[in-house]
Design a protein that fits this description.
The protein has 14 helices and no strands. It has helices at residues 7-16, 35-73, 78-83, 95-102, 106-137, 143-153, 162-171, 178-203, 206-214, 219-230, 232-247, 251-256, 266-280, 283-317. The longest helix is centred in the first third of the chain and has 39 residues, at 35-73.
Length: 318
Amino acid sequence: MSGELSSKDLVDMPTALELPSEQTPVKAVPPTVSGAGRRRGDRAGGVLNVFSHGILAVWGLLVTLPLLWAAMSSLKTDREIFTSPWSLPSSLRFENWSEAWNTANMGRYFLNSAVVVAGSLFGTMLLGAMAAYVLARFEFRGNRFIYYLFVGGMSFPIVLALVPLYFVLQNMEMLNTKHGLILVYIAYSLPFTVFFLTSFFKTLPTSVAEAAMIDGASHTRTFFQVMLPMAKPGLISIGIFNFLGQWNQYMLPYVLNQGEEKDKLLPQGLVELAVSQGYKGNWAVLFSGLLIAMIPVLAVYIIFQRQVQAGLTAGSLK
């Protein structure tokens, strides 16, 4: 055999030579999960879902059933409430609602509560947002001290402030007045509002505010036209919390609003209705008054529930 290579051998040479093993690209192989491990994970997740959904279902029943029972009882007669408390009403007695609204003065109490809560909610949101924005976006001496003063206000029991508040309002001639009660509600709600909104304003991007300032906007215009609309989810969330707390507030108006009967708020009127109707034995009217007091709270939460969830999760996603 001669040592010379033929033309066929030269053509086949590149295919005969193999690349070194270290130059061959190696594909990453994902770790495999055995079938038994996957089944154990699925089984654990299924048990957890069943447990969590079961807890939620029980919680939903505990909340919904008393509400439905109260609504059903408000449309019955007193005899039906005591003889067949779990059955449907034989006829819908809507006159119980009209009697609670007119005869028991729930309409007047409702209007008084609406005026006080609207004024206090507006003041709380305006002052709370302005204070939180300054504490969150500006560095100055005493910033942290002021912030912790607001935070410390959340731990102060309202019961301890009732006697000083009573004499302060008496000296300022604002006792038994709506504007005095509005100021107290604002002071009562500001600590949590500032605490919540300070954390929310810190999550907003600083580049937007800087762009507005470069375009010539003042601090006031930047706050009201740029930053405040961006904080809408947080404002709605804390606004609903404040509305619920102020609408259901009983201790403050009970001590600071002891004037004439026509100036009392809805929680005060509801307690008086419970006492008076309890003596008279007119329980259907009492349940009607209870439902009238609950309707605004339920309506606000049902309308704004998506905004509440968005506001609570917005800070964690940024």
